[in-house]
């Protein structure tokens, strides 16, 4: 759904004058379960200094010559329940993308938040640490290229997690995505992490993950947007080649991904990085494919707050002074390589600088500038992007 400038302005005005709310609005106690309601609404604006591609188009085939786009990014509605006993459940839906989010039931052993069994749809442990973190606290407007291109996010399955406050081992078996005509192919995922230092304002974390999934012989298409999550056109794309030998989008068997991650928090500073490598087995007699990518980012809370730590991911606090808010400066380097042998998917490098402002308990404003360089064979395209986000959550 496209939003006009006036619609975005009215949405921003409404957010600014709305009364402050609290997270997890309590609804009722039903069948021994304490039911609460959460929501997240995001609107994004992109302006492209384009090189040769119309990234502001409504679709890859409907080119309009515009160098900007504005659109509702997310409209997430989530019901949560605690109880009876050690049972927790969640049911989430994104009205913007018309898909189910987390929809699962969890049983905690001994009321330990890090020892549980879960069944339903949930984020897979083979996703990146960035993906496993809360969406409302993304450090940058666009997630990293490996998160968007190589990770496997929500699927229906079963998961067992065993650990404590500073370590855990997780294993899951999954199938398709709950929403029809979305991601499919069964597989399994593993993740382990350890935080040898885990105290207020001082965190050191290491983790690793592995995922293996069936591509159902339908092929797999790996591609990356130019650090703007909603654009329809991808320059870096393994499925855009004209010949079957040069495309992954046919006759593949399985895909496996290895990931490693690191996190360091010291007072108001956070340093975070992740690396992923994917191997695709082919059944057409051609060579297997390998691709990889990584990012490293740094954030500084100008207003002095520090991060928390939960379930192997950093957590962003509320502002110490709600009237002034929490101010952040961020810088990220990101790279992905999807070229291997006959498959020329392309390479992309980017540097993103950003400022975030969390105001009171429910509002967030983001402004990013991304410098992107893309190469594919003898072709190249180097857009620069200004990105802005308005967010309201409860």
From TrEMBL:
InterPro entries: Porin_dom_sf, Porin_O/P
Sections of the chain in a coiled coil: none
Entry keywords, A to Z: Signal
Signal peptide: 1-23
Protein name (record): Phosphate-selective porin OprO/OprP
SUPFAM superfamilies: Porins (SSF56935)
Top-level taxon in the UniProt lineage: Bacteria
